[in-house]
Description:
It is a single chain. By secondary structure, the chain is α+β, with helices and mostly antiparallel strands. Among the domains are: 335-489, no CATH class; 495-571, no CATH class. It has helices spanning 2-11, 25-48, 53-59, 72-90, 114-120, 156-159, 179-197, 223-229, 286-297, 336-354, 367-375, 398-406, 418-434, 441-456, 467-471, 475-482, 491-502, 510-531, 538-546, 563-571; strands spanning 20-21, 94-97, 100-103, 124-135, 143-151, 166-173, 200-203, 209-219, 249-252, 269-272, 302-303, 309-310, 438-439.
Amino acid sequence: MRNKANVKRLQEQKCSHGALTDLKIDDVFAYLSINENTNDEHADDFDNTDLDIDFDNEYFADADNKDVTDDDENENEEDSEEDEDIESDLSEKQVKFGKEFFNMESSSIPIRDYDDLNERQPNFISLTCNIDGVAVYTSSEQSMWTFTACINELKRTIRFSMENIIVLAISVGRKKPSRVIMQKMLSPIVLRLKELQKPKLYQVSVNSCEMLRVYLIGISNDKPANSLVQNQPEPNALYGCSKCEIAGYTTAAKIHATPTTSKRITTTYVRIFPTPANDRPQMRSNARWHEISHALQNGHQFICCDKKIHSYGYLGECEFTNLAFVDRGISFMCDTLHTIYHGAFKRLLKLWLESSKKQPWSISSFLPLITIDLANIRYPSTTTRAPRNLSKCFKLKANESRVLLLIGYPIFKKYLPEVYYNHLKMLAFGITIGESRNISSKNLNDMELLLSSFVDNFPYHERYIVQNIHSVKHFAKTVNDFGPLFNYSTFNYESVIGYLSASIHGTKRVGSELIINLQLFKEAYFASTDHCSSSYLSTFIKYLDTKNKQHPKQRISTENVSEDDLDLLYKSFPKEYTIKSMKS
């Protein structure tokens, strides 16, 4: 009953009177399961009937029946074979492990029937994936792409530690991969993840084992990586939004620029994405992709206002959608680091500080006073990096922008006109709600209202409503689906990518070097935990590794330390150091 109530609540996009705390795994699974079944039903209806009349009349001309192709028979056969294999695994009556016997008689149901399966097999592990690229060397175009995942069931304090991060794959190439290459790189990863979706026997402790399943439920990337993974256009292109099907249109980059036909002088254009309050774009989903792809296979063409042929941003298959609980729209989470702190908020800072002084929103003349006010702010003790001078706002780190937006926004009240300051508060208040640990249903509704109003009532020139500004609208939906923003922000993965890139020291065979370094790290981690977990030296070695200022309380002596522990301790010191024994 609880699962059904959660499903109903999520379908209505409302929260219960309780609070959303951390990542709602059960609710997300139930919600995605219902969406998956609904999408499959829509796809079947689309296959078994003619094209929808309204959809046909609105977008394309008539189609001949002889041009219709049907690819679903092979897909259905593959799905049925996979379900039979899963059922045979689940219907295993007795599994022997050592001296233990596990009765599995009650588990003889399809895995896609999630509501019933969750009641009988409640044990599963869920993953959140991150895919990102980084330059290996500053003097070349060689790039490293990391495919990493975290386990959502772990506490957040240890969830993103390097020893708990799952490295799915690492690719090093001469340049940025294309969309075709990215899908080929994802293919073996998806095959492994599909195997993990089947119930397997895992040892959870020394004397116990459980049947567990592993599911990928979300992907958290920046926008360029999303365009590759989702197999969609670039974020600033036609239908470039990863969450909805907004086309946008091009306009001159300079507000007062006049078009010219001169060969020497060219007008630069940018694509903007204004969204009127009464016009809501179609959200992306697996069902929508099936609808568009079938229409394209049947010979139909989609033409936008400027007479360009398009496919609503669906350039092809997305490998991740072959997994049980990955949707082409919902599963791709909104990221605060690149979209808010390095995106929308920095766009506002640039307008305030780098625009012409004739603009009503320009506050560049007050920059010395703003710097003084920033220096007088007393930030919380948990602040890792206080904002620097705003004279070079584009050099601010994401943590600095975050603190400035969420804590330091009141200093702009004295300098910004009221309409622009109120507009800033919409963004600050909305993101503050999304970053909170506990989010009630009322707060979630307030967040959606604030962020939607921030985009719909953009007081600056329409030319500045670029993709980052438009994407602010989608954050409330992501919070409703997956919980607070800090659980899946790419802030958490930056240190992992930095660790992997910092482990590269050579110029040749970078892939082999990475594999060796990861293997050494894994062996060193197990040596430090298994070998020294009960040792007298464990706290002392932890002190050496973490560089804590607080010394271990226990005094170390050679009488209660084994030779193996001393060998491991010597590895933590430089060779020129010596260890002197002391009395107990």
